[in-house]
Amino acid sequence: MLFESPYDERIPRSASTGRPSLPVPGTLGPPHCHRPRRCREDAAIRHYPGHLSIRMEPEPRRLLIFDLDETLVHASEFSLAHPCDFEVGTYLVYQRPFARELIEFAAARFDLAVWSSSSAAYVAAVVERLFAGVPLRFAWSVERCVQRVDARSNSYVYIKDLRKAQKFGYTLERMTIIDDSPEKIARQPRCHLSVTPFTGARDDVALPALLQPLNALRLV
Ligand SMILES: [Mg+2]
């Protein structure tokens, strides 16, 4: 006995020959399955010869990870010439100009996370102020970094190995970290979006310069 696929019934056939009818010229599929590709949902539908349509799953959002110190804030035990934005313990924290605007811009386009090589208590306090109301996949501190000795400086370097974040369902190709310290992203340099270190200047404009590369990333 021949097995008859239930999908065969969906294929329009010629009344005279019984063969599958050909697509209407100028369309990507037969009239019964062709839809104008105007919206995002329609763009996810691919039509192939043979009349079967396959719905493609939309690409998951990219994960954008923010470093904190010298990327979004500058913390110091000594006051600068202008007042700090908030305090964490003995530290005066200066928020980088446009930090909140960049976070809101990014939150609309990416899944967000934070990874700092500072202490867990410090990260929690800064995140509470800076990312208020913004959902994060995680907020990691130095405990998640890999500690290594830098032979050149003979000091410790705290490496952020992004493979640890793959457990949240993102491949390395769909992760980007904004960080002022390239040595901390040395294991995945292709995932690194570099930014100049922020030392508290009120006229710093490094963050608005990230909008264009972030927009380009969203399309990758
Ligand atoms: Mg940093």
Describe this entry's structure for a reader.
This protein has 220 residues and is an alpha/beta fold. It has two domains: 19-58, no CATH class; 63-218, Rossmann fold. The chain has helices at residues 40-43, 99-107, 120-130, 211-218; strands at 45-47, 53-55, 63-66, 73-76, 86-88, 91-95, 111-115, 139-140, 146-150, 155-159, 175-179, 192-194. It has a five-stranded parallel sheet with strand order 8-7-3-11-12, covered by helices on one side. A three-stranded antiparallel sheet has the order 4-6-5, with helices on one face. A hairpin with a 4-residue loop joins strand 9 (146-150) and strand 10 (155-159). It is globular. The two termini are 49 Å apart. 25% of the residues are buried. Mean pLDDT is 83; it is low at 1-11 and 22-45. The structure holds magnesium ion. Magnesium ion (MG) is lined by residues 67, 69-71, 179-181.
Helix content: 10-25%
What amount of the residues lies in strands? 15-25%
The domain tally reads 2
User: Count of helices?
Assistant: 4
Radius of gyration based on Cα positions: 26 Å
* H and E order: HEEEEEEHEHEEEEEH
Cα shape: globular
β-strand number: 12
**Distinct small molecules bound, one entry per kind:** magnesium ion
| CATH level-4 homologous superfamily of the largest domain | HAD superfamily/HAD-like
* CATH topology-level fold name of the largest domain: Rossmann fold
End-to-end distance: 49 Å
Rounded average pLDDT = 83
Low-confidence stretches: 1-11, 22-45
CATH hierarchy class name of the largest domain: Alpha Beta
Structural class: alpha/beta
- Identify the CATH architecture of the largest domain: 3-Layer(aba) Sandwich
* Major sheet summary line: 5 strands, parallel
